[in-house]
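Dear support,

I submitted the protein below through the web form. The confirmation email said the job was done, but the results page showed an empty box. After a refresh the structure appeared. I'm attaching both so you can tell me whether what I see now is the final result or a partial one.
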Amino acid sequence: MIEHRKIAVLCNYELLSERVGGMDYFFWLFDQQCKERGMQIDWFFPNLSHHGEYSNLSIYDCSYNVEIFFIDFCKVNKKGYSHIITHFLELCTPSFYKIKQFSKAKIIAIDHNPRPLNGYPLKKKIEKKIKGILFSRYIDVFVGVSQYTVNEILKDFGNHLKKKTRTIYNGVVIEGIIERKYRDIVKPVFLVASHLRESKGIQDLIVAVSLLPIEIKNDIKIDLYGDGPYKNNLIESIDQFNLQNCFTFMGSKPNLKQLYSNYDYMLQPSHMECFSLSILESLAANVPVITTNVGGNEEVIADGENGFIFRANDIHELKDILEKVYLGQKKIEGNTRLAVENFFSLTKMVANHLALVLENKS
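What the results page shows now:
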């Protein structure tokens, strides 16, 4: 029977009406499909919001700490959850042990967290190994949003978890993403869609553009969508290299998936990723992606087929790709949308997460 299933979803994910992305759509559709199957579902977020479909969710405001609030809440309310799912929470912490002391729920921990380009410091590696030994037993299923993420879970907490790990790729809403019908082979236009922080590597892109031949620097256009704490640093770098005509800050746009189709290529010079939703959205718009070999990027980008891969932080390699793409010496000619429709849709992502809950063992 399905009706006995009661789900608590703990998400360390701030709800912002000005930033509605792939995970918001996932939460809404997952909630809807759980309820259609007769399951009760409670959501625990750092804040309360009613934008979009959040008005249909049963949300608890965990303003001071999601895990502490949930533990205190369960001690008082004794909801009797059959499943507890976590998103964006640190894995293998004492919180999982504390939850298991009063709950028999099946705990499913989803790992969305990227790892540093050069790995963790030795002290943190040792700490994670110890936490894996002490607390991994209290998590029933570890889910990575890419095979890269699963490999990192095993590296962090121990290979003994291999039988408890699954890979469920993130997915995007294909509907509403406008498809580009043609692609400029020479003098293409580029976009970046990213939170503006140092780990996104946009500073590398600025330096790479500064190394381009003068005739390309006079023409190339790159629009930067997004906002964040590193914006002023990027502006200073653009001014330093006198590239004001090359880069335009477009800010955050709620209708970004309708704007991809205005461009020929997306640039993502990131130093760390798990599995990028913006890459999937760009490909769904038939806009190839030039990105780094970090996280799960190479699980979706096939070099020379739907984009180009370069080594993270390799400014000269990025410069060479930009120059050849701009001059038409490198190009992506095929349609990039089909693979996203087949393998990385939101409906497939939701179906795979539902399967974890619908398994007989609970």
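Response: this is the final, complete result; the empty box was a page-load delay. The two ends are 11 Å apart (CA to CA).
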